[in-house]
Amino acid sequence: MAAKKRFVRSRTNRLVGGVLGGIAEHFNWNANLLRIIYVLITVAMPFAHGILGLAVYVILYTFMPFEDRETGSGPSLRDLFRGASPAPKDSGRKVIHDVTEQDVKDSHKDGE
């Protein structure tokens, strides 16, 4: 049985807070089209209702959690302030220390 999708803000598909990107990912919609529709509806409403449209976005931004981070992604800004440092993953690459750089093509550096 497939896992149930959670209603979360998007970390990758976001312009302001990821709210509309998260809604679009949840329903498999185009996020840019959803943004255009949201802005047009908010602007087309009378002034008091336009404020209500902005308030709805702020409320969703406040209460919708971020989607879970994928494994292998780097530390976030929040991790820096909490003092958490994730253990480095082994990327399969070797690290070379104490290396000096030499020019391979020019072996005569003394003017010879």
Topology diagram in text:
Blueprint: H1 19-27, H2 31-44, H3 47-63, H4 77-82
Observed structural traits:
single chain; 112 residues; mainly alpha; 4 helices; 41% helix
Folded structure, characterized:
- The protein has 112 residues and is mainly alpha-helical.
- It is built from 4 helices and no strands.
- The radius of gyration is 25 Å and the shape is elongated.
Question: What's the quick description here?
Answer:
The protein has 112 residues and is mostly helical. It has helices at residues 19-27, 31-44, 47-63, 77-82. Helix content is 41%, strand content 0%.
* Number of beta strands: 0
On the 0-100 scale, what is the average pLDDT? 77
Number of helices: 4
Low-confidence stretches: none
Which structural class best describes the helix and strand composition?
mainly alpha
Q: Distance between the terminal alpha carbons, to the nearest Å? A: 75 Å
| Main β-sheet description | none
Strand content: under 5%
**What would the principal axes of the Cα set say about the shape?**
elongated
Helix and strand run: HHHH
Q: From the alpha-carbon coordinates, what is the Rg to the nearest angstrom?
A: 25 Å
> What is the percent of helical residues?
40-55%
